């Protein structure tokens, strides 16, 4: 995972990599690879799922709306990757939510910013 990201993005210095405390993220080699690229590693506090609640909620929604019931449709990683990319576009630009005044996240952000400029 990291090598693919490193090969696609050359300058990662200053980036913050936030994760839960999964064993793979605590592994010394993983941490060292991040350090070598100038990436700061950030982890949620032990046993505190609220640190990641926003992203956990998003991934739950993504799995529910994009994946569950469609598992057999994705015959290749490329198909799966494209479906996720399409869903993220839909989620950000098209999917409206009542909590943000029945707007998409991008529209809400644009409206919020324009009201304060």
Automatic annotation (TrEMBL):
PROSITE patterns assigned to the protein according to its UniProt record, in alphabetical order: INTEGRASE (PS50994)
Species annotation: Mesomycoplasma hyorhinis SK76
UniProt domain Integrase catalytic: residue ranges: 1-113
An MF annotation (GO) of this entry: nucleic acid binding
Record-given protein name: Mobile element protein
GO BP terms, alphabetized: DNA integration
Entry superkingdom: Bacteria
InterPro entries attached to this UniProt entry: Integrase_cat-core (IPR001584), RNaseH-like_sf (IPR012337), RNaseH_sf (IPR036397), Transposase_IS3/IS150/IS904 (IPR050900)
